[in-house]
Amino acid sequence: MFKSFAEAAEYVRKNKIRMVDLKFSDLWGRGHHVTISAREFTPALMTEGVGFDGSSVGFKSVKSGDMVLIPDLATGFMDPFWDSPTLAFLCNIHEADTKEPFSRDPREIARQAEKYLVNSKIADESIWGPELEFYVFDKVEYENNVHTSRYSVDSSEANWNGVAAGHGHYNPIHGGYHILPPRDNFYNLRSNMVEVLEDVGVPVKYHHHEVGGPGQCEIETPLMGLLAAADAAMLIKYVTKMVAHQSGYTVTFLPKPLFGEAGSGMHFHQLLRRGGKNAFYDAAGPNLLSQTALYYIGGLLTHAPAIIGLTNPSTNSYRRLVPGFEAPVNTFFSSGNRSAAIRVPRYATEPEKVRFEFRPPDATCNPYLAEAAMLMAGIDGIQRKIDPTQAGFGPIDEDIFSWSPEKRKTILALPTSLEEALCALQSDQEFLLVGGVFSADMIHDWIKAKRADDLAVRARPHPYEIELYYDL
Fold first, then answer.
1. Using DSSP, how many helices (H) and how many strands (E) does the chain show?
2. Strand partners, 468
3. Is 157 a catalytic residue?
4. Confidence bin at 61 (pLDDT 50/70/90)
5. Which end of the chain is less congested by CB atoms within 10 angstroms, N or C?
6. CA angle, residues 55, 20, 370, in degrees to nearest 5
7. 3-class DSSP state for residue 351?
8. Of residues 218, 231, 362, 419, which has the active-site annotation?
9. Are 414 and 320 in contact (CB under 8 A)?
10. Annotated catalytic residue: which of 72, 359, 380, 454?
């Protein structure tokens, strides 16, 4: 929004801004913020920053937790959810004393990944288009204690409410894809979300009702640069939750909130540009893909089990990655096959738009880290010339679930649990460390924290276990 501090300061003065909100992401992808009075919005902010406790959000230890936030002026937007006129910025995280960029700042890691791409001479730009799926519920309840464990969600769209409301326009399980109103209850809500997103500077390609009958929706962005796409994903999560909250609904990006219903993923469309041209396009190539694109696919699928430890970092992620729900469970690529880990869209035939999408990720990931990891895997594939067909990754345009179990075993499976994904990340991380993009100690701490999540879930009795085994 702004090219200089002077331009931003003039905007603050002219628009009678009272608050300046500084937003940032922790390592895990949760948003945080600190708000300053507009009187504190001075040039010193751009060099000194605003202090915060990095230990409270998992960045540092308590004994050395001081850090500072410095706003990225280009990301400025009016936050529409505040009563006071509030100008918001996404921020970069810096060391408190030296003011050097913090190496574990997710935005910094994303920047370093793209810098490594440019230095490799492979391409000048990394282009991304995230698709975010989510559920809108009327309410959610959950409780976990020594003596109880339960959760419940409700949706006015769901056919389990067929008796209660009496209007007859309900959605069966798996029956929500592109449905029209009145069965689509949330068309106005999604449009409001998109209007707000566009007002804050996030472009939107389209929105629609997804497969999940009880309120599953999707918002997709057009193609944009790596950092802009990750910023957009963070803002989409913020805006959708806030618009829903103000309207009396609740939004969740949980990959699998409903048993037996479609899960929510975050597919990442991606391509590289060099000299302004799409490096993934070749009119004579298979599915219009260049050799560079194929090598990138080879790297992405070779490292897919490890990448999943970053792109699918919740225990709930692996409730979604199961057969039968268009969620990928094997590492192969295909043209149009939605059960493939990598799908080449058949509709993307224009030279500047030829690309593929990596389908396993979900929105419990940190989008900055997820994009950086995928890019590093793709670069490794290009540098090592990993041919995906020779490596056994396809293309496969058949329904692999119609194959015999023996034949399906010829395709590398994706991890089926968080622990399995973390083991893969632990044993295959060298491609992430090249160029200092990721650090070994950061990956170690990531694995340690995620294993703690996994243990916390596994250590608790599951409600269904009571039903299965109580009377034995």
1. 14, 18
2. none
3. no
4. low
5. C
6. 50
7. coil
8. 218
9. no
10. 359
The confidence score (pLDDT) of residue 167 equals 78
Instruction: Give me the residue spans of the domains in the chain.
Output: 5-101, 115-155+197-207+215-255+263-469
94 catalytic per annotation: no
Nearest-angstrom CA–CA distance, 182 and 164:
17
Q: What are phi and psi of 112, to 5 degrees?
A: -65, -35
Active site residue 207: no
Tens of pLDDT, residue by residue over 371-428, are: 999 999 999 999 999 999 999 998 998 878 788 888 888 888 899 999 999 999 999 9
Supply the pTM of this predicted model.
0.96
String of DSSP letters for 195-235:
HHHHHTT----EEEE-S-TTTEEEEE---EEHHHHHHHHHH
Which pair of tokens denotes residue 205? 């390609």
The single residue of 104, 267, 273, 343 carrying the catalytic annotation is 267
Alpha-carbon span 185 to 50, nearest angstrom? 43
Our answer to whether residue 48 is catalytic in this structure is no
Element at 135 (helix H, strand E): strand 125-137
Model pLDDT for residues 251-297, shown as the tens digit of each residue: 999 999 999 999 999 999 999 999 999 999 999 999 999 999 999 99
Q: Which residue in 108, 131, 157, 261 is the catalytic one?
A: 131
Catalytic residue among 338, 384, 444, 462: 338
The encoded tokens of residue 10 equal: 């003039």
Residue range 5-101, CATH number:
3.10.20.70
Provide the CATH topology of domain 115-155+197-207+215-255+263-469. Creatine Kinase; Chain A, domain 2 (3.30.590)
Mark whether 131 is an active-site residue.
yes
Of 96, 88, 90, 132, nearest to 110 by C-alpha is: 90
Tell me whether residue 454 is one of the annotated catalytic residues.
Answer: no
Q: Could you give the maximum distance between any two Cα atoms of the chain, in Å?
A: 73
- In the set 108, 133, 184, 261, the catalytic residue is 133
Q: Distance of CA 241 to CAs 136, 276, 350, 364, 458, Å?
A: 9, 36, 34, 14, 29
